[in-house]
Amino acid sequence: MSETGKIIFDTASRIFEDLSTAEVINAAENGQWPEALWQAIVESGLTLTWISEEAGGVGADMLDGFAVLKAAGGAAVPVPLAETMMAGWLQAKAGLPVGSEPMSVVIGGLHWDGEVLNGSVTGIPHGRNVKNLVVILDSEEGAIALCCKADDVAVRPVAGLSGEPWDTLEFKGVKPDQLGALQDGVDEAAAQALGALIRCAQASGAMAQALELTIQYSMERVQFGRPLAKFQALQHSIAAFAGQVAAINAATDSAAETLARNNRVDNDTWVEIAAAKTRLEEAVNEGAAVAHQVHGAMGFTYEHQLHHLTRRLWSWRDEYGSDAVWSVRLGDEVLKWGAEALWPKITAVSNPR
To answer: Which among 71-80, 155-164, 287-296, 316-325 has the top mean pLDDT?
Structure first.
């Protein structure tokens, strides 16, 4: 991590620790917007981490942004920071100005006639809370990004598995404020891949925090006269949990490094992201199960942090395509390589140099 990146990460971690508390998260899930948390995020420039200084952003490395996303995942931050960062990156790829208001991204699913947008899309994170929406569409003229005011869109509130808004949006003759042609090969598929990698980064941070909570609780909780951590069966389970955390972090970091190096979702980057998203399902399923087995009912109590993490993990594993979807895509790509190219391709994609 660069010196700038370390400053950004430390700043983000302090903000999340102070302002993304269990009380704030619970209140957000009950419909209360965490204004103090969002203002602190905006004032620190975290929403503009991936935007160049020339465009009014922080100008940090992409890896620094993914480090922030890991920290946000570990704190179960109940605001659309990840979505706003993603929207800003896509706006920049279309040569559009980027602001600091909360944003979310809509990928495909709408009809664009050259003037207005029509259609319905489901599962839009924080749809009711954002001020702007960035719509990514593959048109006859190429991939485009359209920026719309959220107030121009009808919202049907839906709660996701995480407890956060996962809303349905209705576009009826919505005229975008801005439109730009996407560059560097960015299209609907690339935007979906970026979203998948962002969810892997958030999940990596959440799993690491859940593991830390599990280890701590196992050492504090006494059963049959000794701490849970002294029971060999639980030691094995926690060790397996740690292995899953290491695996998803390694897969996510490899994909993030490839994206940062290329600054585009080319074929190598896409393969790395597909591998990480495919790996996420197993990591979440096994890791969350161990965490709740160790904590027992305590992990689901209203005030405890664990369920804030695991409910988001269960949601993130399916967003932007489940492991089944990405496994098929990855398998189809690998089959194209052929037997002779398989090993050279794997080692070439995995090599950060």
So the answer is: 71-80
| Distant-in-sequence, close-in-space partners of 313: CB < 8 Å, separation ≥ 6 | 203, 206, 207, 210, 284, 287, 288
Give the torsion sign (CA, 24, 207, 272, 326): negative
CA 216 to chain centre: 26
Q: Tell me the Cα Rg of the chain.
A: 20
List, for residues 101-141, the tens digit of each pLDDT value: 999 999 999 999 999 999 999 999 999 999 999 999 999 88
Selection from 254, 266, 257, 274 nearest residue 333 by Cα: 274
| Residue-level length of the chain | 353
DSSP for residue 305: S
Question: How far is Cα 296 from Cα 289, in angstroms, rounded to an integer?
Answer: 10
Which segments of the chain are extended strands (E)?
103-107, 111-112, 117-125, 132-139, 142-149, 154-156, 166-174, 178-181, 222-223, 226-227
pLDDT band at 1 (very low <50, low <70, confident <90, very high): low
Domains in the chain, ordered, with CATH? 1-79 (no CATH), 101-184 (2.40.110.10), 188-350 (1.20.140.10)
Please check whether residue 143 is in contact with residue 186, taking contact to mean a CB–CB distance below 8 angstroms: yes
Give the global pTM: 0.93
